Amino acid sequence: MVLTDPCFALMRDPCAGLNGNGLNGAGTLKGDPVMIFGSLPRSTAGLSDRAVDMGPYNMATVQVFVTGTNPSGIVSVEGGAEQAAIYLPVPDPNGSKVVTASVSFDVVCGARWAKVRLASVSGTYLDGQGFTVWVTPYVSPGQPRVTADHLGAGQTAYNTGVGFWLEVNGGVPRMSVGDPSAGHLLWDGSALTIAGHISALSGSIDGLLTIGAGGSIEALGAGSAKAKIDATGLKLYNAAGLQKAELLNDGSGWLGDSAVFAWTAAGVVTLNGSAVMPNTITGGKVNFFNVPTIDGLVLTNNSPGAGSVAWSQFTLTYQGTSYTVAAGNTASKFIWWNKATSTTVLQTGATPPAQAADQFIVAFNKSGTAVGSLFANIVYADYISAVSLAAIQANIGAAHIDGVLDIATTGGIYQGSGSFASPTTGLKVWNDTGVGRIAGYNATVLQWYASTDGKLYAGAGNTLIDANGLSLLAANVTPSRVKWIDTDGLVLGQIVDYVAGATPNRGSTLSMAANYEAGGTGRGVIHLAVAAVHSIQLNGYTGYTYFNAPHYDFATGEIAFNGPSASFGASPAASGLLRLPVNQWITARNKDNNGDVNLAKVNTSNLIELGASISLASSSRYIRSAAQVTLAANDTTVVPATLGLLVVDDDTNNGCGIYVTGGGSQALISSSGGAWDVGAGAPGNNKIRVYWDGGAVNFKIINRYGVDHAVSWYTLCC
Questions:
Q1: Is the dihedral of CA 155, 159, 164, 167 positive or negative?
Q2: What pTM was computed for the model?
């Protein structure tokens, strides 16, 4: 690469000019190549020990030969005024290369001596591998070289005089350009300083630009218009050069006119309303010009007829004064209020009124549809168009949504204490990975929620409502319950899945209780268990019925109960296994299922009363008594002959029955003198008299007159 920057022509050593043939005194165009790192390749970073004499030359060819595995390094040419002086990179952009393979490149070098620096070496190198560098100096006609330690024009030293000065001072390069007493540029080796005005047609500042106490930056506009930034702040000027705004570095400023609109560093705003909007600030009040408030306005479409609109009476407040505006209607398009015309009657017309102070549009008639203006406290959806609306708070009354209201991924609705992100007590609706959810909270505890599966949960997920109904998950420690409570929170009744402390079993327990929790009276408990201890318990406040170890056979339908007692009805018996009240029938359904059959009861005379006939279904059935059995009428006034015991066959024809009337004339079996007479008629007549003497059965035949036809008893022998 050959540089033709004319500045290099000024960097020629005046004591080393070319002769008329374009050659130096040696008369050679190319020097001898130098193996800069010696005879062995270099694999470590550092500056070469050898130097190339560039005295007669202004260019050098650098040849790099690389061996090794994944070799990489930066090869740079550096120059110095003396062979043993400090070496700095040459100003040629081509003077430094990242080398990963053998390469050759040319470098402009105006220094007296040149060395090569190897840096950022990486890769794997065996013995005899690395970077071998050859440098060959030569003359490129027309190219400059520098053999002195400074270059200047106009200035006689660094920042002395008017012109420029470029030098290396103590190994540190520095430069000065311009007039030290006016506009100038300085580079002292670490900082760049610019004094005076800078004109830039384009460009950018990527770093920090610092303005000194007396400096400024100005963006110029038409005429004398400009924006100026100096050490005090930002100032704006119009085309006439008049300052129209100011923002100082302490935060204070003004806009337009410092006497009209200004603010302090503490944020106190001064507004001269009389100068900006007359009558806006009066009596210590701020009255916004032509911005009224309207309360109670109701607009009615197509009233009193099609194409017209009507309005109700309402209150209009303007510049601190309230006016009652009368109701009215119109078929005209424009409806407005004009203070000068009337403060209580709205004006109407086919064309809009001219814009002026103290008047404004209240509503529009759109072919019979009333459309409120900005001041009518009505906002119509037809007139809202926005990509997004944020921080909206509005009292909209009743709302109707024709389309679908969608909640974005991070959006939701929350009403209650706390916040949407951290609810305390309230209702939350939100988007959970694309599926809507709703939940209720109390004191930061999630009480119930509709999950993303479309089901309703409560009790930490243990209560479920879905297409299958209501499900309660039984727990091992805390029972699952369905409770009935009063307004004070007292539990009046509940269904519990198991008794606290017991191990739950599938279908194990059904408990219904009033005040069944700890400390309660246990009034009105119903308890059913099918776990290790089977029981049915009906528990009242003063007593209970408890069936221990119940058994139910699903195959046979058998139900067995075992317990102290079972009571039924009001005022039951005080003792016994089955306790019944007085004069209450035990009743069964008849065979046709169209009526009931009373079985038995204890009547008010303390007698067991049967409500139907008794049928002994098998010949092996007996009615036995350890004592004498007496059959008597309940009512002693009834003739005994009409009562007694009747035994009949299945067809009730009395063909094989026995009727006992207590010795009456109709008795089929009666007693006589220690024997039994069998037959109808008066006692002792027309009978077969049977007598058992303890060893044999004897009998006689008695005629109708009561005469024995047998002198002695006939004995039935075995």
A1: positive
A2: 0.28
